[in-house]
Amino acid sequence: MWNGRRVSTNDAYLEPARERPTLTIMGDVLVDRVECVGSRVTGVRVHTGSGGTVVHGRTVVLCARAIHSPAMLMRSGIGPADALRAIGITPLVDAPGVGQNLGEHASITLDLQLRPEAWASAVDVRPIRCLVRYSSRLVGAGRNDMQLFSVNPAGIDEAARGRGALRASVVQTFSKGRVRITTPEAPMPLVAVDTASKMAIEGFTTSLAFELEAFNVRVKLVEPGYGPSTRFTQNTGSRLEGLIPEAYAPFAQSVFAALTQPAAVTNASDVAEAVWRAANDASGQLRFPAGADAVALAQSR
């Protein structure tokens, strides 16, 4: 909030300080790891369009949220020592807790298009004005472990005044996740976004299945492979324009080259069949690979 109005973090903290001579804002930068001298962090290593460099500072604040913060620390040698050695990273600090005990509040949202008389007066008003806490009464769950609340406006554009939502959210979760890295180097955006999004969906689905089992609601996840005949794959090229830093271009080219000669692919019919099997499955199976390549990957895990 700023002067009684809802504003973004950028407007509240960055914009008032933008003209300070001691502030430098760098865009299109990929942060790789923190740089250490002994046990002291002295800066961060970053990748820009012109290559890699180290930004030094007396104080370093790592603020990359729950996924990328532990990944940066582990690439820096701060994390579970045995796991770091296994991928060729020399441990600086044996910190087994880095990347562990991730929790997520699963939620279900019902989007609403509001009548004109119910629209928000402005896009910067408080979006949540009604919240109900209640108990699921699940074994082991605490009191008021659930939330039900309304949202309006739903977004930051002018049309958000007419959009609303009802959201049910799990406040107390029992399942835990973890972050691990498989390479000493920071992955390029092509691989990072694809892998992270899939892992996030898998983790969310697993948590959601656990939470909804008590209500006799089954959750299934269909996981297709590479489908060159689908619109999604055809549109991928335009989505990736400008996302690949120069330093990662050779690696990106090798990835794209491998995709042009796949040993197995996923067809639209494979996805349709997997959806049908998932919808009619009464067992406890959660993941349903769709396509020969997806099946092979699932079997190799």
Describe it.
- By secondary structure, the protein is an alpha+beta fold.
- It has three domains: 86 residues, FAD/NAD(P)-binding domain, CATH 3.50.50.60; 64 residues, no CATH class; 112 residues, no CATH class.
- Helices cover 29% and strands 20% of the residues.
- The strands form four sheets. It has a four-stranded antiparallel sheet with strand order 6-9-8-7, with no helix packed on it. Strands 1-2-3 form a three-stranded antiparallel sheet. Strands 4-5 form a two-stranded parallel sheet.
- The N and C termini lie far apart (47 Å).
Keywords:
301 residues, alpha+beta, FAD/NAD(P)-binding domain, four-stranded antiparallel sheet, three-stranded antiparallel sheet, 8 helices, 29% helix, globular
What is this structure, in a nutshell?
This protein is an alpha+beta fold and 301 residues long. It is built from 8 helices and 11 strands. The protein folds into 3 domains: 9-94, FAD/NAD(P)-binding domain (3-Layer(bba) Sandwich), CATH 3.50.50.60; 107-170, no CATH class; 189-300, no CATH class.
